[in-house]
Amino acid sequence: MRSHVAHLAEAAGLVGVMAMFASLPIDGASALGGFIGRTAGPRLGASRRALRNLQHAMPENSDAENRRILRGMWDNLGRAIAEYPHLAGISDSGVERVEIVNGDALTGLTFDGKPSVLFGGHLANWEICASTVHSLMGTSVLSVYRAANNPWVNRLMRWFHGERRAVPKGSTGGRELVRHLRHGGSIAMLVDQKQNDGIAVPFFGLDAMTAPAIARFGYRFGCPIIPVRVERLKGARFRFTVMAPIEMAETGNAARDVLATMTRVNAVLEGWIRARPEQWLWLHSRWPTWRPATQV
Known about the structure:
Number of helices: 11
CATH topology: Glycerol-3-phosphate (1)-acyltransferase
Order of helices and strands: HHHHHEHEHEHEHEEEHEEH
Shape: globular
Largest sheet: 7 strands, mixed
Number of domains: 1
CATH class: Alpha Beta
Strand content: 15-25%
Helix content: 40-55%
Strand order of the largest sheet: 1-9-8-2-5-3-4
Radius of gyration: 19 Å
């Protein structure tokens, strides 16, 4: 009963916050979210972890630079939260808030009827990335989301996602992804979080536990692995870019090929993050240890 009441109270609080942001114009909501994020975020205990991650991942940075990145990260996160109730409005092609680069590469996949694996990371507003993928590919794409622990919060977040076809992260969702690929569909995943049962893959020169699923799907179904990037340009305006497929290793050694391909995936993510470090979510416990990465 206590857990149920706590979940309802948490959900009610979130509804209030989302209603406040929904009542504002898109730019006003984004600006307010950014102000709250950069004002309150750096004072939270989680900022210590973010600073540690920055110090180890980019040791060449000065303390002042890392604190600038930290403040920018909180600004971006605050904006992403405030933009949640406006996802449909931001992604609407008629308002031109999302500049799409090479989008034909995705629409072409839907006409070919061949499977593909798309990946991105927690950069800028990653929900805009997901919304754009679904807008371009329709029902041919199935994405993965992390279900909230609170079922009421989970329903609210899923409501904001609109008509996306998506499955929760986990074994049940994994089976759905396999079925979808087998029938010629495409899947989309964020792959920059720590995976305790993953494999150690270099990331910023350090071993990071990484989910190898997208590489294994690529080899199993003979499909391309395609990076999709979202950048925040200014305020609630974004650029979405479809990049060339990752070159997949082909040595005949399955474990070594998966590791080499995931190393290339992490290298793409690292390049995006280095270009706009304030737009990545540095709060993750991404590295279990701070030892240099093993060589592939």
